[in-house]
């Protein structure tokens, strides 16, 4: 796969974060999803309708939620992002690793792993 495609895939994922998470704009974000979108997070229903429900829940329950992509990698048809998430300003922070599989420039599958950022750490390295 040419490097151009890898960069395009990364840009698609970055646009998805902005639309889906930061803007909570289902219509804009859904244009970046494949019509056979597969969700592997067990707390989110599968498919495009599950995605719509997820965005509506974010909008209602966490209107100020923000996600900041700290690192992003692409290989083949996968994009991996290391993300700093804050649901409520001043509240607990979350370290997230999202994995996306793209088909023809659209997000076809999503996996994630999340860990709350502790108040105290045994080292000074930080999670980001």
From TrEMBL:
<protein>
    <submittedName>
        <fullName>Polyketide cyclase</fullName>
    </submittedName>
</protein>
<dbReference type="GO" id="GO:0030638">
    <property type="term" value="P:polyketide metabolic process"/>
</dbReference>
<dbReference type="InterPro" id="IPR032710">
    <property type="entry name" value="NTF2-like_dom_sf"/>
</dbReference>
<dbReference type="InterPro" id="IPR009959">
    <property type="entry name" value="Cyclase_SnoaL-like"/>
</dbReference>
<dbReference type="Pfam" id="PF07366">
    <property type="entry name" value="SnoaL"/>
</dbReference>
């Amino acid at each position: 796969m040419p490097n151009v495609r890898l960069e395009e895939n990364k840009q698609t994922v970055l646009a998805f974060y902005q639309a889906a998470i930061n803007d909570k704009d289902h219509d804009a974000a859904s244009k970046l999803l494949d019509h056979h979108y597969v969700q592997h997070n067990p707390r989110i229903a599968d498919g495009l309708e599950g995605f719509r429900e997820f965005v509506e829940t974010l909008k209602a329950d966490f209107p100020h939620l923000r996600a900041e992509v700290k690192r992003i990698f692409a290989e083949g048809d996968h994009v991996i992002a290391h993300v700093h998430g804050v649901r409520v300003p001043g509240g607990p922070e979350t370290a997230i690793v999202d994995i996306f599989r793209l088909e023809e420039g659209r997000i076809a599958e999503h996996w994630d792993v999340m860990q709350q950022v502790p108040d105290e750490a045994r080292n000074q390295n930080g999670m980001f």
